[in-house]
Amino acid sequence: MNIKKLIKSVVLLLILFAGTAWSNTVSDGKNSEKEKRIVKFAQTCMDAYQIPGLAIAVVENNEMIFAKAFGVKNLDTQEPVTIHSIFHMASVSKPFAATAVMQLVEKGKMKLDDPLIRYLPYFKLDDPRYRDITIKQMLTHTSGIPDVEDYEWDKQQFDDGAAERYVRSLADKKMIAAPGEKAQYSNMAFDILADVIAKVSGMPFEDYIKKNILDPLDMKDSDFLRKRIKPELRTSAHVFDLQPVVSEVYPYNRRHAPSSCLNASVVEMCNWAIANLNHGAFKKKRILDASSYQLLFEPQVQADENLAVGLSWFLGKYGEFKTIGHTGGDLGFRSIIVMLPEKSLAVIAASNYQNTPMQEVAFGVLDIMLGLESEPPKKQIMVTLGRTIAEQGVQAAVDQYRKLKDSQPDAYNFQESQLNNLGYQLIRLDRLEDAIEFFKLNVEMYPDASNPYDSLGEAYMKSGQNELAIQFYKKSLELNPENTNAIRMLERLEGEAEK
Question: 379-498 — its CATH code?
Answer without folding.
Answer: 1.25.40.10
